Amino acid sequence: TGLNTLDYGFVNTGATKSAITYIDGDQGILRYRGYPIDQVASGCTYLEVAWLLIYGELPTDEELAGFDARIRRHTLLHEDLRRLFDALPHSAHPMSVLSSAVSALSTYYEDDMDVDDPEKVELQTVRLLAKLPVIAAYAHKKAIGQAFLYPDNKLSFVDNFLRLNFGTMAEPYEPNPVLSKALERLLILHEDHEQNASTSTVRLVGSTKANMFASISAGINALYGPLHGGANEAVLEMLQQIKDSGEPVSRFVERVKNKERGVKLMGFGHRVYKNYDPRAKLVKESAHEVLQSLGVQDDLLDIAMELEQIALEDEYFVSRKLYPNVDFYTGIIYRAMGFPPRMFTVLFAIGRLPGWIAQWRELNNDPLNKIGRPQQLYVGHPERDLPAR
Ligand code: CMC
Q: In which pathway does it act (predicted)?
């Protein structure tokens, strides 16, 4: 084919224009539709930001109220879909449960799947935003062996989600404003991040004209890996191992630098940020706030801060421009809220959902959209004949 350059990991390959998110990795800048991430994260709600990413502008009060009401109306899962969870083992990783259930949504809405009908695209959008948190909470309840609750649509988006996770049949759930605010902020910080691995997956699947449920289920699977969204769970495992082993933090860092097999500083480094990840700064602030207001003292936060300090002053990390990324401190907050580590990447998925939807829709509306189809350089056998039989 005349192909003579390869780009492993698509480090230098652009495949789309986009008007959604701007990143300047050298300066540590992130903006949603032009708005700086710190302003968005402190002044907006999750659904407002979802609207901003999907439709391009902040919603008016009326638009937001209508969007919120439509999403509330769609929170229930089909009863048969609730029973899908019975078929999966308690030990299943909640990310696998999440992608399976999202994929299964395609089976319930076959009449609303036309990707060229704007009304059906709206329905797919609203159904996903409404149902993903419910599916996520059921994945959690399944893992801990508790009964599923039905959503309570009087509650806000975030409180409804927290109640579905932490309420029980026996006890009414009391929303805690500190946790609700912190979770909302974390979700907003994850809402979009331009052409990362999961978003590129959503776009590649979407480029075939597959529906939004199928495309986003694929994105969830891409997010699952420890080099991507799975890093938040891996960070907590790493901190816990350091604590349990009693190994000094500086020794652990030496092992990372010696590239001991399987030892990496999880939650550090980024393909695009060659400066402090602006999201990590905000997450670190939240970690202190949440722990303080809950009156929790967490040794893992101390270990994380010591790791960060050693790494930021060490030549290995400095020369490679490795800084904490968004996943470094999130697990500590999620843990303080009561989520088990296996739920951390699921929370990332709920956060990222509006970005996946916005990117899928941008692609679907782009007249230049073509089926994605990378090339290869063939390095196998030249033509040969089957042995005579
Ligand atoms: N610990 C130790 N060394 C590292 C790390 C790390 N976390 N990250 C990168 N390096 C080294 C790497 O070994 C390489 O060194 P050398 O030049 O000697 O071979 C150099 O830094 C460049 O790294 P790379 O692997 O070529 O960079 P990449 O852009 O391909 O990978 C990354 C980016 C995020 C996958 C990687 O930094 C990593 O594995 N980090 C740990 C996992 C993690 O925290 N992922 C979350 C990313 S942020 C949000 C998200 O997507 O979820």
A: Carbohydrate metabolism; tricarboxylic acid cycle; isocitrate from oxaloacetate: step 1/2
